[in-house]
Amino acid sequence: xxxxxxxxxDGELVNGVxxxxxxxxxxxxAFAKCPKADELLIDRAVVAAKRAFPAWAAKPLEERAALVNxxxxxxxxxxxxxxxxxTSEQGxxxxxxxxxxxGSVFTLRAFAAMRLAPRTLKDDGGNIVxxxxxxxxxxxxxxxxxxxxxxLMNKLGPALVTGNTMVAKPAPTTPLTTLLFGELCQEVLPAxxxxxxxxxxxxxxxxxxxxxxxxxxxxxxxxxxKKVMAAAAEGVRRVTLELGGNDAAxxxxxxxxxxxxxxxYRGAMTNAGQICVAIKRAYVPEPMYDEFCDExxxxxxxxxxxxxxxxxxxxxxxxxxxxxxxxxxxxxDAKQRGTVLAGGEPLDRPGYFMPPTIVRDxxxxxxxVREEQFGPVLPVLKYSDIEDVIARAxxxxxxxGGTVWGKDLARAMDxxxxxxxxxxxxxxxxxxxxxxxxxxxxxSGLGAELGEAGLNEYTQAHIVNAVALEDA
Length: 472
Ligand code: NAD
Fold this sequence. Notes:
By secondary structure, the protein is of the alpha/beta class. It contains 15 helices and 24 strands. It has helices spanning 39-58, 61-77, 79-90, 94-112, 148-161, 176-188, 204-208, 222-233, 257-269, 289-302, 321-337, 367-370, 386-394, 409-417, 451-456; strands at 7-9, 12-14, 18-24, 29-36, 119-123, 127-135, 138-142, 165-169, 194-196, 215-219, 238-242, 247-251, 279-285, 339-342, 357-360, 377-383, 398-399, 402-405, 425-426, 438-439, 441-442, 445-446, 448-449, 459-467. The strands form seven sheets. It has a seven-stranded mixed beta sheet, with helices on both faces. Helix 3 packs across helix 4. It is globular and about 80 Å long. The termini are far apart. The site of nicotinamide-adenine-dinucleotide has 29 residues, from helix 7 and helix 8.
């Protein structure tokens, strides 16, 4: 508890009105304190960001991009420290934490390399029409607890490069890597360009309803996303919503079940299943169903479930108690409806450990199939007709991602095209790239993050439409 973490407001590291415990999910014990803001401090942060906006927006893009690169360098230089703190607050194994930190570095650099060139829409000798991209103003970033660092960079990179300033609010169970990143922002950026405030799930609405916030960039659950969207209506504030998912994996009948089971297992269990685009239900052809289920169960039993800071751990704890209870309840319900082949019982030790759990023989209406479990448990379902399985995969209010696994690439890509989600990967998973836009369909989101489309979300398209003045 010796290390002090402070928020960043107007270029100063500040304490809050009180401090609350941050719990290590591998021990269920508090290991640090997080300062908490009140409404007044949120207001100060927004005012500071608004004050910093004109000078920041007026800087040439190259200068802003150079400062974003400097942030990436500063983060890379302390990558080990960030990764270790990320494991302590989030629970993920250290190698996965390092992957998130380095992914954050690459994301910042990718956005720093992007440019906002004006587009000539018409130039016919008489009429010239040019589309410019102008920054919006103060952006509020609100992030969840599964990837606290990289999900912030997905917003901070494009917001800063395009000339916006920011107030960022992490999730209360994983605030520390964001606060540590605030220390880098204090060293590298002009005062007020990035501000960081913390809450206990009680001040998000203060940000989303603030009259001086021009845009809310939100990643989190669909339920909270709806509130963010409703709050933004008042000022017709811009929103980007990256929300929940219930991604289907469709295994085609021409694959080697053992080989593909390994890939599906990884897609479902990385980060203990706490990934918006984790595989959350798998559909397997009837003739290979038993073998596929057994292979998944074997992999689940081989997992090393332990504290993420221990070498060799493949699955860490669930991030917080509330999520742990939710996953446990879904598994308990599934036990009544189907067959649990592996896992199913929490580890008998402190911390929120649920071993990887494989469930078969559920029907499509089971809560574990219909809802977003967001934990290390995978329902495996049987199919015999490809048209039928496409319909079942699409039978969801979510539309975030999905995967198709098949030897015949053209056939697999054809199935992928018919899955109604923002992204479908074929024979791979989690191929997220800062240069490729990422978005959800249906209730999984609104607007894009990443890529040029993601960059444009932080700008207003501005048309200048001119003709020469005729002689009087
Ligand atoms: P959550 O919705 O509970 O919280 C997300 C953030 O919103 C937190 O910072 C929280 O403090 C804040 N918040 C809470 N109430 C608010 C309000 N009324 N107004 C504004 N902000 C408010 O989500 P979570 O449980 O932290 O994260 C898990 C969810 O996030 C899952 O559903 C997952 O699928 C989703 N997620 C989506 C993506 C994506 O890119 N689509 C990525 C990661 C996670």
